[in-house]
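QA checklist item 7 of 12: single-chain prediction sanity check.
[x] sequence parsed
[x] length recorded as 475
[x] structure emitted
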Amino acid sequence: MTVQDPRPEGAPVIPRPDREALETLLASLRDRYGERLQTGEAIRAQHAHATTWRAPQPPDAVIAPRTTEEVADLVRAAAAARVPVIPYGAGTSVEGQVNAPAGGLCLDFREMDRVLAVNAEDLDCVVQPGVTRKALNEHLRDVGLFFPIDPGADASLGGMASTGASGTNAVRYGTMKEAVLALEVVMPDGEIVRTARRAKKTSAGYDLTHLIVGAEGTLGVITAITLRLHGIPEAIASAACSFASLDAAVTTAIETVQSGVPVARMELLDAACVAAVNAYSDLTLPAAPLLLLEFHGSEAGVAEQAETFRTLADDNGAMGFDWTTKPEDRTKLWQARHDAYWAAVRMHPGKQGYSTDVCVPVSRLAEAVSAAAAEAESRDLAAPILGHVGDGNFHVLLFADPADGAATEAVDAYAAWLADLAISMDGTCTGEHGIGQGKIGALARELGPALPYMAAVKRALDPLNIMNPGKVLHL
């Protein structure tokens, strides 16, 4: 397979560490950690491969720390040798966040996967970064609480915090930026810091918590996360509503938000996505633009929300509205939504998929989605659209044979165009996937004069540029 250089044209090449210093570091770590330090080609390749369009760039070694103190020891040793440190969770990122363009030491958090505390009365918990969202919710089920941030993949909570993830529940429950109360972080010099306490609000000092959330491992390594929790709703209902056109579906989504309906999830799938999901998940949804919804609350409240939405949908020519409170039916419907990427990939054999995302103000959503669909058609690109339309965030799935340079360039060109479209609407080039390697240029176009100040923060905290280099900023 031919792989593409993930660096935009003109981006600086990140120098690899001194070979002798690297070998000395690895020998020292092998003395301390034994066979836990792995340098085999297969394990290194595994830790450079995620759900990504970017070319894999493996680290020099992989190790799975078990404690915060071990993470601090590893970071101090890497800093002394000027060797990069790349945190790794579940490997579900899509913009090359786990790549190691200069090699280095990959910290795999699979063994730091404990729920450290559940404070049910305060509606919060403390977890290690390797805990996945599904494992946390399984742990919480018996105390009547749940963690609502659901990006689809069973991502690790450390990775979700690092990328500022959100997902299907964001329209009601927010994103990781709202869910994280405090962090324990190993800084680039190996110091262990706690960014906040468990209080629900604070005016104490600089907000280091939300500086680290979304920093993609470039400012420090997260070793513990304090998260907001929510009570499991009394009643939950899921619904599927088809429309004659994409515009009608998006308009209904906008009106639902503007009408104050407290919908928990509201997902858009265009006709191509629906066809793929039907084939992949053995469903019989109408092959038309679709809104999938979930309502949380009391039984009466859920029924009222559903009826309000039905009225809005009918006014926009809805073709049908089906809803259910049966857990097995809800699970099947939402699992099909979460499998939409893989369903679409199956429809394009021999090609690799790339899911790009943007977010715009809800008032511009219909315009943005229509323009995205029209532009893809004009470029003769297969580009199914889906997304968390309740908060203006949508995804376009793109496909190309990685060995076909012209095809991959066409996909990247469309993704850049889409990012610029969102920016022109006072939106953002990414609502939840993060910048990684793939959207560094788009971030510069979006925030321009703010970038030198971001770079100043990075240089102040990480003067050796060992924390996940080559991500977010060109340094």
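[x] summary fact logged: DSSP finds 17 helices and 17 strands in the chain.
[ ] second reviewer sign-off
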